[in-house]
Write a structure and sequence with these properties.
Number of helices: 1
Distance between the termini: 14 Å
Structural class: mainly beta
Strand content: over 45%
């Protein structure tokens, strides 16, 4: 570790130990308390770790969890993928039947989109995101990619579009706070991967930019700025309602697990993934501050953990290691 000094900060640790969800293998944790342990299933946590969902494969049931650890709703589903926004809204996509739904924090259904002409498939070409008050869903149907954007507060469709180029597929989708849509798309020619890029749409569905960013997997926003990360590269992008431009980029040697804005700065979490004792673990997580084409390490942890997280602590980036009960910051440990 980087000559870390032990500091006493009981208030931060007490909050983390009671109020934030994280996953310890097949255990959903709320702080240091186990709230669910599905034998077969999946666990999903919101970006701010205040909401969670657990899918029980045997029961074919999703349980939605409120910040206090109580179950707010139970929903039947077939092998879903789930996104949860920081308002507690749940987006549920069932790939095998091409069904997309959105539920309010109390489990009330808001959006129910099932394509009547779609068929059962084990290879869905789809991407979706939810960020109150919007939700988006993109899917390639018969060779062409379609996009829907909803106002989930009022349960209405805002816009829908179709990509004119055939053999184009969505890989990831993200909604910016001002309503712009960022989609990573890739193309296929003669049955082979032919490249990917990031496409940006305005809040009313107009394409405003195509950015030469490949392999995008993580994104976070701060006003008109976005940090987009692939496995080892971070790109800072300026985004408005009329244009999007690449500002600078940084290559990192470590595998990028997440990217967050903390105190107006782009903070990147790197760690090496591995598989131990039937669960994913992360080795030697570290935080990096990225700005103006340069990177600087902020904090790191020498060892293995199951759920390293970027936090903001008094306006500064911090690395939370819940399995060890510590918070690491530049110049100190909390």
């Amino acid at each position: 570790m980087n000559s870390l000094i032990l500091l006493v900060a009981i208030s931060s640790q007490v909050f983390l130990q009671k109020h934030l969800f994280w996953a310890n293998g097949r255990q959903l944790m709320l702080g240091n308390r186990v709230v669910a342990s599905p034998e077969r299933g999946d666990i999903f946590v919101s970006p701010d770790m205040r909401y969670a969902a657990v899918y029980d494969f045997d029961a074919r049931e999703i349980q939605f969890y409120a910040p206090d650890g109580s179950v707010t709703a139970r929903v039947y589903a077939i092998n879903p993928v789930i996104e949860i926004d920081e308002s507690g809204d749940f987006a549920v996509f069932e790939p095998e039947i091409a069904k997309f739904r959105v539920f309010s924090p109390n489990g009330k259904p808001v959006i129910d989109q099932r394509l009547p002409y779609s068929e059962y498939t084990d290879e869905p070409y789809a991407a979706f995101d939810i960020s109150f008050p919007r939700a988006t869903f993109a899917m390639t149907i018969k060779g062409y990619m379609h996009i829907w954007m909803w106002d989930i507060e009022h349960g209405k469709l805002l816009w829908k579009g179709k990509i004119a180029s055939p053999s184009t597929y969505p890989a990831h989708a993200w909604i910016a706070p001002d309503g712009q849509l960022i989609v990573r798309i890739y193309s296929v020619k003669n049955g082979e991967f032919a490249g990917d890029q990031v496409v940006v749409y305005s809040p009313d569905g107009k394409k405003i930019a195509e950015l030469p960013i490949t392999g995008a997997t993580h994104i976070d926003f701060n006003g008109d700025e976005a940090c987009i990360a692939s496995k080892r590269d971070v790109f800072r992008v300026s985004i408005t309602n009329s244009k999007a431009e690449l500002m600078d980029s940084v290559h990192l040697d470590g595998f990028i697990k997440d990217v967050r804005f903390v105190g107006g700065r782009c903070v990147v979490l790197t760690a090496t993934p591995d598989w131990e004792e039937n669960k994913v673990v992360w080795k030697n997580p570290a935080l990096w501050i990225v700005d103006n084409g340069k990177s600087q390490q902020s904090a790191d942890f020498e060892g293995t953990t199951v759920w390293p997280v970027v936090l903001e602590d008094n306006g500064e980036p911090a690395l939370w290691i819940p399995s060890h009960g510590i918070i690491l910051k530049q110049g100190g440990e909390r």
